[in-house]
Inverse folding.
């Protein structure tokens, strides 16, 4: 299903910029987010976000994607450790 995705303009912990899907309760307000576009997967949205912020990662709540190399962790958790 295609969703609207946004990235938080303000870096959080570890200087990460978190990607959110439309409707997420943690989505920042209009002034605090940058619209990324519509994507079919959270991973695609995160890749787009990294064109703006190299440290972008997915919100654990709305972007629970996995890395193929590391199936035991969600992308967001794994990236925290990589940052
Ligand atoms: Zn979210």
């Amino acid at each position: 299903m295609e969703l609207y995705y946004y990235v938080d303009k303000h870096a959080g912990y570890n200087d990460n910029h978190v990607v959110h899907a439309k409707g997420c309760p943690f989505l920042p307000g209009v002034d605090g987010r940058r619209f990324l576009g519509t994507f079919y997967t959270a991973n695609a949205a995160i890749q787009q976000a990294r064109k703006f912020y190299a440290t972008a990662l997915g919100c654990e709540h709305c972007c629970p994607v996995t890395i193929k190399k590391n199936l035991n962790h969600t992308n967001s958790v794994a990236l925290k450790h990589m940052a």
